[in-house]
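Working notes for the structural subgroup meeting. M.R. asked for a predicted model of this chain before we commit to crystallization trials. I am recording the input and output together here so anyone reviewing the notebook later can reproduce the run.

Input as submitted:
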Amino acid sequence: MTVTHSRLLTQSHINEDKQPDWFCKEYATFRSIVTRKDFPCYFGQQGEKRGELRYSFINHDDWSSLPHTLTDFLSLFNQPQLTRHGLFVFVEPEQEEKTLNYYRAYFWEVLQYLHEHDPENWPKNQPKDPDHYLWDFHFNQEPIFVFGNAPAYKQRKTRDLGNSLILGFQPRRIFKGLEGTEPGGAMSREKVRERVEIWDNLPKHPDISHYGDPEHNEWKQFFIGDDAEPIKGKCPFHVKE
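Returned structure, recorded in token form:
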């Protein structure tokens, strides 16, 4: 069934409205993980506790609600007061767990689908080549940091949030004051990354850096490896002509 409307959900929508059983189950798992006292990402943890996060879901055979949902989500940032909303999109779980490469390919297919259904053109002043250090994913001309979480992560436990592939969407504007080039932002990020290293029992992934680092490719940070090896190869995402 093709969905031609937004499916942007709050916590109350999940608790009060009729949603698919699999989604309710995966959301409960997600919440139990991110609200743990020692969960590394303080910002995500506080957003969940305050009810500031938003959620959605897609089935394998129908992604049609997603462009409408993301458009609706971005409209939240038109309010005068900035709230650091994040959007987490849950993908219907596989019947049997797949490999990390499978989930990575699925992740990039979803981003490509969103781009193909973007109501706006790619910003003229933004690089189209993902290998450019200033490349970023855009939708509705809004720069967005997107990161993948999947059950195939066995070492980097911070990226395993349940049985679903989960895409996290964070518009760049929520990082205002927390940029890697700002002292306060650098300090906050380092604290989170130190906690991640403890949780994962692995050093920081070599592709993790901050946006604008000329030695960094942003796309590699979107879906990191389950190890400490740099990601090789070309980004599967391409900007439509």
